[in-house]
């Protein structure tokens, strides 16, 4: 079972919010004692998802949580937007699929970089992506 | 607006990225570099990213663009000093940075640039095989 030790919400509405947000994620990762490689993977994943949230979701919020699963600590990030949603999730999760004339790496790449990945989306209502990176994950 | 300084050293341009790039900064760098290559008729571009702790797909794409555009304008480019954790993360993300030449540090990068320039000068009639290292 995963318990939340602390939680902080972050509002993301413009590009200038991204760097301070990334720094907050880094602080949270450092606090768990996470090594540099896992920190880098987590921050890169966060950077991809926050970019999607801005570009496709029109902005939103991210919850940064310190979590524990009984064995180790980790960082959970919950990205929520009230954008248009994603019609076909399995398509969106494929390497190379993009409606934004981009590389289509963000979602599938992020999934590879973290330990737990969950995406929920309803057309017309919005998208929520939850990831966890464990200290030694 | 913030800009990353571009140093001219003879035929080369040298860029040291000291901060984590955000989008506008990266895009400015892309245009500034292309303009500088044109203005100085530079033969090589060396980008030192040893202080950069995060490269996501957007920034990776900018680095790729800089390489491609330099090439079109007749300049070689090399990226030096990528942190091991950044390199490993890029691979897992799925970003291969094809077409971007890399070297361990500035010194090795300069060597690589010089040899690439020699190579491209030597076969300027019969070109188009700018393979990466
Ligand atoms: N928060 C979101 N709201 C609505 N659609 C989204 C959201 N996130 C992703 N998508 C959709 O899923 C597709 C795939 O996203 P992904 O991040 O994998 O690729 P990309 O953003 O298009 O390209 P890249 O991340 O490589 O620059 C996007 O093109 C977009 O259509
Ligand atoms: Mg994306």
UniProtKB/TrEMBL annotation, chain A:
Name the domain of life this protein comes from.
Answer: Bacteria
- Chain ranges of the Histidine kinase/HSP90-like ATPase domain: 37-137
Which Pfam families does this chain map to? HATPase_c
Read off the InterPro entries from this record: HATPase_C_sf, HATPase_dom
- Name the chain's protein: Anti-sigma regulatory factor
Task: Provide the species name.
Answer: Flavobacterium zepuense
UniProtKB/TrEMBL annotation, chain B:
The family database entries (CDD domains) matched by this protein are listed as: STAS_RsbR_RsbS_like
Residues annotated as domain STAS: 2-113
What is the designated name of this protein? STAS domain-containing protein
């Amino acid at each position: 079972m995963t318990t939340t030790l602390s939680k902080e919400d972050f509002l993301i509405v413009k590009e200038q919010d991204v760097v301070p947000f990334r720094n907050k994620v880094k602080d949270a990762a450092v606090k768990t004692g996470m090594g540099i490689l896992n920190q880098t993977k987590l921050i890169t994943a966060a950077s991809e998802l926050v970019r999607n949230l801005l570009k496709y979701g029109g902005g939103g919020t991210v919850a940064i949580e310190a979590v524990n699963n009984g064995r180790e600590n980790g960082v959970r990030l919950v990205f929520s937007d009230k954008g248009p949603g994603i019609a076909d999730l399995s398509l969106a999760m494929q390497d190379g699929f993009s409606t934004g004339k981009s590389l289509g790496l963000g979602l599938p790449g992020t999934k590879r970089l973290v330990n737990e990945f969950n995406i929920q989306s309803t057309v017309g209502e919005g998208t929520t992506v939850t990831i966890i990176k464990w200290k030694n994950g | 607006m913030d800009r990353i300084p571009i140093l001219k050293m003879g035929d080369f341009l040298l860029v040291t990225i000291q901060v984590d790039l955000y989008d506008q900064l990266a895009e400015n760098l892309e245009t500034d570099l292309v303009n500088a290559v044109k203005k100085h008729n530079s033969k090589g571009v060396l980008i030192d990213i040893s202080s950069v702790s995060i490269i996501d797909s957007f920034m990776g794409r900018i680095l790729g663009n800089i390489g491609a555009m330099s090439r079109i304008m007749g300049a070689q480019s090399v990226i030096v000093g990528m942190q091991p954790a950044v390199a490993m993360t890029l691979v897992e993300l799925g970003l291969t940075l094809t077409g971007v030449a890399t070297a361990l540090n500035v010194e090795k990068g300069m060597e690589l640039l010089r040899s690439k320039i020699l190579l491209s000068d030597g076969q300027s009639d019969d070109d188009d095989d700018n393979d990466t290292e």
